[in-house]
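Long-time lurker, first post. I've been practising inverse folding by hand and with some scripts of my own, and I keep getting stuck on stretches where the structure tokens seem ambiguous. Below is the full token string for one chain I'm working on. Before anyone asks, I'm not after the true native sequence, just a reasonable design that respects the backbone. If someone could post their per-position residues I'd love to compare against what I wrote down in my notebook.
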């Protein structure tokens, strides 16, 4: 949940997404004494925006992206490059993520182009093999029978979490 969506009031502006994730991270750190190095961020669709932004600013343990967007305009218009006024510039930020990144994406996603998601992943310095789900659209990858097995493999084998 974030400002302007779900149970939250307000408007879902870009700066609110960043403030929301910063608030959650601050709460984890100061109320629960959880350090960024112990946090695995998960961002789905537009949730990839604050997730990628935070991962470029803090040394988190890992990032999982499910149907991430490359940018705001590329999600809704057939543009091929980022423009100066393009909101949600994930493509410009993702190369600054220093931790491992796992991508989930539906082969049949008609909202976020799979080529865009793979372009985004290709710019991640520490990417792992993605999970590309055949027969899944934008909001359906999490229902794939192998989805949680792939997360488990990422956690226990690729991150060496015991």
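-- Answer (accepted) --
I ran through it position by position. Result:
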């Amino acid at each position: 949940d974030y400002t302007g969506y779900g149970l939250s009031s307000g408007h879902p502006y870009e700066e609110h997404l960043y403030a929301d994730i910063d608030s959650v991270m601050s709460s984890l750190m100061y109320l629960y004494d959880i350090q960024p190095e112990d946090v695995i961020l998960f961002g789905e669709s537009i949730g990839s925006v604050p997730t990628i932004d935070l991962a470029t600013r803090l040394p988190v343990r890992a990032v999982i992206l499910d149907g991430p967007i490359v940018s705001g305009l590329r999600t809704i218009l057939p543009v091929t490059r980022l423009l100066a006024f393009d909101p949600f510039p994930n493509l410009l930020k993702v190369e600054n993520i220093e931790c491992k990144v796992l991508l989930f994406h539906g082969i049949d996603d008609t909202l976020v182009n799979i080529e865009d998601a793979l372009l985004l992943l290709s710019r991640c310095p520490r990417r792992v093999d993605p999970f590309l789900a055949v027969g899944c659209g934008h909001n359906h990858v999490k229902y794939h029978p192998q989805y949680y097995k792939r997360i488990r493999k990422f956690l226990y084998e690729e991150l060496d979490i015991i």
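A couple of notes from the structure itself: The CA atoms of residues 49 and 88 lie 6 Å apart. The first strand starts at residue 40 and ends at 44. Happy to go over any region you disagree with.
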